[in-house]
Amino acid sequence: MTMIQMQPRSANASPVHPMVGDAMEAAGPQVCDDMTVEVALAVTASARAGHLLVCDEDGLCTGLVTQTQLTAIRDSAAYTDQVRLRDVLGDRGPFTSPMTTMAEAEHAMRYRRLDALPVVDDQGSALGVLALSR
Question: Contacts by 45-54 with C-beta closer than 8 Å and gap 24+?
Answer without folding.
Answer: 50/116, 51/116, 51/129, 52/28, 53/27, 53/28, 53/29, 53/118, 53/126, 53/129, 54/30, 54/85, 54/86, 54/89
